[in-house]
Specification:
By secondary structure, the chain is an alpha+beta fold. The chain has eight helices and 14 strands.
């Protein structure tokens, strides 16, 4: 079994003075939700997600060996869409603190991190998953150069595993954004290779019904998150239903293994919608308690149920820890569902905004 110590590198074989990388990493949408964690970003239950394709963070990492700067601190500038963004820095600083032991070169360089998202700023779409994933793969590119060996290169498998491992330490769900198209994070007895330390591509058969699966994200409330993930995960400590919920996630993942194989969309819908409502139920039944759905979230859910009943089109919803609704459906009903969204759901979105996305394949080097 892989342990965290396996990601502490051997002494580097190369030195490099400066350079620049650029990577994009996508967001992901969980089907079985991660909600609740233990120390060191270990999830309380396994989760599985679709990697997205269009909602991405693009991050450029420029690095230069420190000259006369303090060797005992991290040195970095952070730009968001080309402009300095001081308020993002503490999160990055914390991330660097957590990953330093696994990337011992971090204090040798000054970094300029220049990052942008393809989705609108403050859309209520979490950028921490794509953002931390994009930064992690950039750092791995540098480590790959530093650890070249005669005739042998770091394998893609190790690169991706460690990138996911690092991303997890930035934001748990970020570890599911390195690869596509279906990623599992967290030990599950029936998913070989699954780990609490990093995300792995779902190893079993996936039916064609899920190829190019669509996710249209309806922006119901673009405001700041009412509850940060950190606070939210913490609410599961001592939560009266926590243990039952964690066990249920294991069972739901078991069911999904069969559903992915058979392509049974009505069973898929049951699990996915139940997971979304359970996530919100956990928040409603914690202390303090929160309602993160808005009236329009419920309007949309009811409209989706009515449409599905009337047409038998296998469209369903899922939710993150917020009011926005992810509308999930197979590619072959795209036209009908988009017409339904335009005619019946856009009115519930803030400024009529929604984002068309679909299942994707993970981080890419630019
Ligand atoms: O990665 P975090 O700590 O922001 O947690 C994300 C949790 C959910 O998005 C609500 C669920 C999930 O599995 O992505």
């Amino acid at each position: 079994m892989v342990t965290a110590n396996d990601f502490i590198p051997a002494p580097y074989t190369h030195s490099i003075d400066q350079g620049i990388f650029q990577w994009s990493a996508p967001s992901n949408i969980a089907l079985v939700k991660y909600w609740g964690k233990k120390e060191n970003q270990i999830p309380a239950n396994p989760s599985v997600s679709f990697t997205l394709n269009n909602c991405k963070t693009i991050t450029q990492l420029a690095f230069a060996k420190k000259q006369n700067q303090d060797p005992s601190t991290f040195s970095f500038d952070l730009l968001f869409e080309g402009k300095p963004k001081e308020d993002f820095k503490p999160k990055i600083q914390k991330f660097l603190d957590r990953i330093e032991i696994y990337l011992p070169f971090l204090k040798d360089y000054h970094f300029t991190i220049d990052t942008q998202n393809t989705f609108p700023h403050s859309s209520g779409i979490a950028s921490s998953a794509s953002g931390m994933a994009a930064l992690a793969v950039n750092f791995m590119s540098l480590e790959k150069l530093l650890s070249r060996n005669f005739g042998t290169e770091m394998t893609d498998e190790y690169f991706n595993k460690k990138a996911s491992f690092l991303a997890r330490l930035g934001s748990g769900s970020a570890c599911r954004s390195i690869k596509g198209n279906v990623v599992v994070w967290g030990n599950h007895k029936n998913i070989s290779g699954s780990s609490n330390l990093f995300g792995v591509e779902f190893p079993n058969k996936i039916h064609d019904n899920f190829s190019n699966y669509q996710d249209t994200i309806l922006l119901v409330d673009k405001g700041e998150k009412q509850v940060s993930s950190t606070v939210g995960h913490d609410l599961m400590h001592g939560h009266p239903f926590a243990e039952k919920r964690f066990a249920q996630a294991h069972e739901n993942l078991d069911s999904l293994i069969k559903i992915f194989e058979s392509g049974n969309l009505s069973e898929f819908i049951k699990i996915v919608e139940s997971e979304a409502l359970t996530l919100h139920a956990m928040m409603m039944t914690s202390l303090p308690y929160f309602i993160l759905m808005k009236p329009n979230t419920l309007e949309i859910i009811n409209a989706i149920w009515k449409f599905r009943n009337e047409t038998q089109i296998p469209v369903c919803f899922t939710l993150d820890a917020g009011a926005n609704v992810h509308v999930l459906y197979p590619e072959d009903v795209k036209e009908e569902v988009l017409t339904f969204i335009k005619n019946n759901l856009v009115g519930y979105c803030q400024n009529g905004q929604y984002i068309c996305d679909e299942i994707g394949f993970g981080a890419t080097k630019i």
